[in-house]
Amino acid sequence: MINFKERIKNKYSSLSAGMKKVGKYVLDNPQALAMKSASQLGQEVGVSETTVIRFCYSLEYSGYSELQNEVRSFLIFQKSSLHEYQAGKEELVNKPNFFAQNFQQHQAHIQEMKENIKEEDLQLAVDRIYQSNKVLVTGMRTSFAVAHWLSFTLNIVRGNSQLIQPGIDDINHLITKLDSESTLIAIAFHRYTPSTLKLAEAAKKQGAFVIGITDSDLSPLSEHSDVLFPIGLSPRSTIDSAPAVFSLVNTIVAGVSVIDIEEFKKRRDNYDRFNSENFFI
């Protein structure tokens, strides 16, 4: 059964500006909706009570009370994304070809993501990365692995990327070196780490171009991004999102690599000529 969060995400693009404000507020503060009347919620968000009621109708609820009751039940029985991940695997474990079924789920997630992302946004991001004098990449917790891979691979094909590592790097120094010719790629998913959001905000203030990779148009990362890539998968588990996220960043790297094929060939040849016998087997 589709819940209120999924309804908001599915309908978000078609909502009016006022109803979008309500939707974002409800996703960020479901406890407030559970406790407040429609009038009080409208005052909190800065819209009319009528807008709140129309928002409920747009999500195909009979009214505010039905949405409020669902949110209250959700808060009582809410489980973590790990429960979602485990439940999804338990559904497959008794079916034939468990591993093949998992591969098929990954394929479906990549296809779902593909439908949420615009070709022109990908081209804009790729062009900006190629043109930038410096590209910083940041991601914490489950996003760190993606950020590390993306920074490492961009350095192979372009050579102008750096992974931000809190606790090691002087973040203030890195951010103050950003300007209008720089790009920050910020990766953040549900339970968005404040440090990633603050880095995106700071980079934006420095005039840098910010590329956001996240789970939804409603992510707080959207406020600081010049171009946003919402993965938009229906499962809540960030673990299940990983194949789609890696597919996205690999596609971005592929786009950068073919802008100037001759330059990439030179970088490849230099990479291959490097005497690495002291570092690799």
Features of this protein?
281 residues; alpha/beta; Arc Repressor Mutant, subunit A; Rossmann fold; 2 domains; five-stranded parallel β-sheet; DNA-binding transcription factor activity; transcription regulation
What this model shows, in words?
The structure is a single chain. By secondary structure, the protein is α/β, with parallel strands linked by helices. It has 2 domains: 4-77, Winged helix-like DNA-binding domain superfamily/Winged helix DNA-binding domain (Arc Repressor Mutant, subunit A), CATH 1.10.10.10; 110-273, Glucose-6-phosphate isomerase like protein, domain 1 (Rossmann fold), CATH 3.40.50.10490. 60% of the residues lie in helices and 9% in strands. The chain contains 14 helices and 5 strands. The protein has helices spanning 4-11, 17-28, 30-35, 38-45, 49-58, 64-77, 81-93, 98-116, 119-131, 144-157, 171-176, 194-205, 238-257, 261-273; strands at 134-139, 161-163, 182-187, 209-214, 227-230. The protein has a 5-stranded parallel sheet with strand order 2-1-3-4-5, with helices on both faces.
